[in-house]
Model the fold of this input.
Amino acid sequence: MSKFWSDFVVGLEPYVPGEQPANANLTKLNTNENPYPPSPAVMQAMESAVNDDLRLYPPSNADQLKQTLADYFQLTPEQVFVGNGSDEVLAHVFNGLFRQAQPILYPDISYSFYPVYCGLYGIEFSKVPLADDYSLDLEGYRRANGGIIFPNPNAPTGRLLGLDAIKALLQDNRDSVVVVDEAYIDFAEAGSSAVSLIDQYYNLLVVQTMSKSRSLAGMRIGYAMGSKVLIEGLERIKNSFNSYPLGHVQLAAAIASFNDPDYFAAMREKVISSREWIVEQLKVLGFDVLPSSANFVLARHSDQNGLALTQSLRDKNIIIRHFNKPRLSEFLRITVGTPEQNQQLIDALGEIIG
Ligand SMILES: *Cc1c(COP(=O)(O)O)cnc(C)c1O
Done:
């Protein structure tokens, strides 16, 4: 603590990201990054963007990227917002759309950045407990609120809420903004995204990221899609904060990624089939695995302690994520890696469990 900190700063509880270890020998299955590199076309676009134009500010409205996203998702550019990672987009959502008279609602087991933004922007919230099977309990959201947000698939459970359920939620909740954080939606079955509902529900905002399914966590590119009024609200916040959240190289990478659908589809398939393999293998080892539609799985063993297993894996140079929280402490959250990494994980767990 410093005497220069305001009481507000003293009171903040910042987010703690998963470890990014300096030791490259570790098998890193802890932060849901993609195990495959960005597409060669993306690498080439970024290289070409490193030129004398870097002395110029980037286009502040990111028109070309917005048009690319609009074409891809069958929307208009006015229905698209872009930002420096979806974390920044989410920060603007909380700041611009969730500062309401009523508390906002989100699941008790969910992305741990949500309470951090509530703290930063002074937003009241109420956590809705997940059902016994760790799925979203829709009944809990049938009450007055200042907004609703949940990841779909949920993190860190991996469970997917179907489009019909999302529709029902929107039907019951016309007077506040419903945000679906689709960081992992590309790993779910095709047609699961709520983007298709945007033209029907002007209070729906869908947030996505290029960090997971598009192998670009290091470039920091996120976006939101929704009705024109919601996007305009976000633009007002963004233009009161930082007019240039995406630089030339980021914009080039993002556009090139959406223009290379074959590579995207191929990597997506690889991750999904590896996920199914890991689930099978974990079950053979006696784990109970939640059904996952993401690029990670949440699994617990009937007679092994979650923290102890995490530490034993670490001793074998494999890092995964453990959450020391109610209803999660028995679990391991394991990011899907390459087939080699996944084999290492399963072999290590086999040795530990014996
Ligand atoms: C990873 C993640 C994000 C953040 O993604 P960035 O675009 O890298 O900031 C947002 N929401 C959820 C649920 C995530 O898991």
Observations:
- Residues 40-260 form a domain with the Aspartate Aminotransferase; domain 2 fold (CATH 3.40.640.10).
- The chain has two domains: 7-37+262-353, 40-260.
- The mean pLDDT is 97.
- The pocket of pyridoxal-5'-phosphate is lined by residues 85-87, 111, 151, 155, 181, 183, 209, 211, 217, 222 (CB under 6 Å).
